């Protein structure tokens, strides 16, 4: 993936060194409370309103000089050239030799996206149009339960990771847009609890199962899918599987083997990473849940941010600024984690969604050229909706010894029925951001403040805005990866665990014959035998 191959990337870069000096000589001596007192223009200077989003980064420990140096870092690390490489379909996912074209999933029909010879825009729209017809047929009842002609009342998405989190997050976030009479359930975990609980609530005659897996080889998904099919066949017969099971995958043969009829297979492509795939057919359950018009509005929101990311100057570019501030907090101010705190209960699963996006993408210890990274990469991401979280872990944010960067997010118009109650949530968010920045130091150092936070405000949590938010974080993650010199689009670390899980599956089934593993593994297997 292009970029300058500095031997000591990014530490050896001029702008990196300048940022280090600036942090030590200037920023570490300053306090956010003073910075606000001294500069009444601080909010105007360090906030941007663009594309219906207001990004307030005035509560970061930055000055004009910091922002200038960060801008220089973006230039020196070739963020612009690599961004163009991504949109142009270059194989910037070098380790897997793949293009990275999730932006094509939300393209207008005349936006040109190509993966080599493949016209990605045309391919995407062909699948979208098929999804459109399918979703509308389900909603109208034209596509109905086998033998009974009854309308579908329940959709069960079976997937995990990128084939689950975006669906659960978006269906929850957009519950106000839910199609009446159709419930969406998400089943992911391998232990079968989620599946059993869901099956207990549904009627096979009116349930549509969506088996969602990019590879269609993932143990969790196949285990749950086979268990769901067995349950279904027992109650409703094998004949009905063709109508009641739909598949979403890049692996058409595996869908075939599972018994999914060709008309019910929705494909996508290797140029889409799992954690960037909710915009593709992976979002079929979202589209079923909120309707195709709303799903297309979600895509339109993503597209708005793609254009902004490509066109806005670096110093007014939302994802670029968010990526740079993250690098600033992580590598210069020592933040070890990022807390994402939405002040809207509908966004309850947004932090979980962002966990995979950030940590599977940038939780890396090797640079693109295979050498070890010499700086910290992705911080740990965590979070919960406010104001609930204020009554659990905010104590640590205010006075703990660890540095945590914070993203507050909120719509101005609440998602609940009472704007009065939502106003209370907004008031709490504003109060927390202030307290974290200002502190309340009586001289004993008890409540130090000077804790950085971003506030991201928008009018309303609608499908288009959700699309904007997700795309914003996607591109922020990309910007970070470029600066750290890592590939955000592979996940080699997950593979070893998957391999060992296969070995341990046999061991748990027949512990007696198992000779391998370490003493801990054998000791635990002993206990499993005793207590099973
Ligand atoms: O957890 C590893 C991973 O490969 C993720 O990247 C992916 O989103 C998830 O597993 C599910 O994969 P699939 O969609 O192929 O079932």
Short description:
The protein is of the alpha/beta class and about 525 residues long.
Shape: globular
Number of helices: 20
At CATH level 3, the topology of the domain at 102-293 is Rossmann fold
How much of the sequence lies in strands comes to 5-15%
C-alpha end-to-end distance: 50 Å
List all distinct small molecules, including ions and cofactors, that are bound in this structure: 6-O-phosphono-beta-D-fructofuranose
The main sheet comes to: 6 strands, mixed
- Average pLDDT reading: 96
Helix content: 40-55%
CATH superfamily of the domain at 102-293: Glucose-6-phosphate isomerase like protein, domain 1
Model regions low in confidence, pLDDT < 50 over at least 5 residues: none
The structure class reads: alpha/beta
**CATH classification, class level of the domain at 102-293:** Alpha Beta
The tally of beta strands, per DSSP, is: 13
CATH architecture call of the domain at 102-293: 3-Layer(aba) Sandwich
Q: State the strand order across the main sheet.
A: 1-2-13-12-10-11
Quaternary structure: single chain
Determine Rg (CA atoms, Å): 24 Å
